[in-house]
């Protein structure tokens, strides 16, 4: 899998590991940086792309991080130059760029559009300045609103925002106010997540020493229910547990993860998948990544490979497909496991948490979504 043998077309993910400062909840790999580090990163990225891409057409391109908007215009031009040298972008490729609201400027947006970016994912997280400060975000609520207005003024039609709920001290009325504000905006997509206390993050250690109190499970569930209801009323479809879109504006790139489509991940800590049973994770160290790029003869970046067992492939099928509104087609399940799956699913079908339609698609019901972790856990393979 050195070059990641893939079906085509495929997705390309580029992890930009730079952040001006770290959010208290973030467990993704990121590091502070200067111009020298960014230039070295871009050079290594171009070498990794040339070494690993096998020529399959790229149907989705996603810049994530970290903070991709920390790259300046010259650096972004270098990245796209490498992409066009080594890849064929499909005519209607979805090209997503994650950005912080305070990085959005007329010049940057115009340049991104010139490069072909047609979807912006804005890390808003909250429309409340006190909560933004708690999360250690750089921007203010007003900057987030101004960024969305600027994107629309510059002709960006496909705008996604991220929100976080279940913050310490956050009440249902507070969350309802944020949702009302979000759905009044000219956005096409919303991703919303419950605040997680990932080990190794400042937030995790703050909770451990009693400095913050985690939102209780009942309140968090009520907030999620409020999210689903508000999205539906605003004309957004819940096409995945945490993702909502206006018709025609689902994230095609993220959907590839949930539907088992191959993707190539470049950059420190980036993940790749061959569409069958092999995963690759690049080493998380930016230093080691750049050292590989400085080698006299480039021979890939440090990484690990994982070949999934039949049981692991089955469990992954359960945990990805059931997150989507389409659900899991029984045709995707190995014939030798279908009866066992239906047997494990039966109690949840009877309880109204799962449904099996006439086309043999198993999916979570509206009530099942709220207990999705428990349902999927019950369906995991047991020898």
Question: Can you put this structure into words, describing what you see?
Answer:
It is a single chain. With 383 residues, this protein is an alpha/beta fold. It has 2 domains: 249 residues, TIM Barrel (Alpha-Beta Barrel), CATH 3.20.20; 70 residues, Arc Repressor Mutant, subunit A. Helix content is 40%, strand content 21%. The strands form 3 sheets. A 9-stranded mixed beta sheet has the order 7-8-6-5-4-3-2-1-9, sandwiched between helices. Strand 1, helix 1 and strand 2 form a beta-alpha-beta unit. The longest helix has 18 residues. The protein is globular and about 60 Å long. The N terminus is likely disordered.
Largest sheet: 9 strands, mixed
CATH fold group of the largest domain: TIM Barrel
- Strand neighbour order, sheet with most strands: 7-8-6-5-4-3-2-1-9
What is the terminal-to-terminal distance?
Answer: 29 Å
Write the layout of secondary structure elements.
Blueprint: E1 10-16, H1 35-52, E2 58-65, H2 73-86, E3 89-99, H3 106-115, E4 119-125, H4 129-134, H5 141-153, E5 158-165, H6 172-183, E6 189-194, H7 202-208, H8 217-233, E7 237-240, E8 243-245, H9 252-258, E9 263-266, E10 271-273, E11 278-282, H10 286-294, E12 303-307, H11 310-321, E13 328-329, H12 335-350, E14 354-356, E15 361-364, H13 366-369, H14 372-379
Parallel strand pairs: 1-2, 1-9, 2-3, 3-4, 4-5, 5-6
Antiparallel strand pairs: 6-8, 7-8, 10-11, 11-12, 13-15, 14-15
Helix pairs in contact: 1-2, 1-10, 2-3, 6-8
Highlighted features:
single chain; 383 residues; alpha/beta; TIM Barrel; Arc Repressor Mutant, subunit A; 2 domains; 9-stranded mixed beta sheet; 3-stranded antiparallel beta sheet; 40% helix; globular; disordered N terminus
